[in-house]
Amino acid sequence: MRALDLTFEKTDQIIGLLKAGKVGVMPTDTIYGIVGSALNPEIVEGIYTLRKREKDKPFIILVSSIEDLKNFDVSLTKEQRNFLENNWPNPLSIILSVRSDRFQFLHRGKNSLAFRMPENRWLLDILRRVGPLVAPSANPAGVKPAETVEEAKKYFGDQPSFYIDGGKLKSKPSTIVQLLEDGTKIVLREGSFKV
What we know:
ten-stranded mixed sheet; single chain; globular; alpha/beta; DHBP synthase; 6 helices; about 20% strand
């Protein structure tokens, strides 16, 4: 089936597609991402296949609030919660322990997941209404991330259900920080956000 070209104004249609288990390419708070429900194992596997990504590398998960972390059996310590309350929303991805085997399809045996609460209002609205989304960059593994919808279409053709054109997007990726239970912060990738 041919991929749909949608605009930001088609929010209800986008939400309907994502709730129906579809995958799309759209702007995130940093660059274009391939997005789909983070709580649906089949969708997550489909995105791995689409991106030809190594199966042991977890995706970053976009959330609309700190409370969304409960969906993943994450229990925050006081230190972790304080850090998130002071630093989210931002282009800051936080790695937290996830001990539950239920989320093996997401953590790929790493027993931890990376979460980000984006600063973009439109995207937060979608996340509030659809739930957490995986949103890896829109490119096959080993190729540069798509900066335009045209580039993403060259990569993926009609495999995604929809594309949303947000113009040319080029920015530093998010900063990735591992946040230990005692509040210790380990910067794993220095991105656009200074910790």
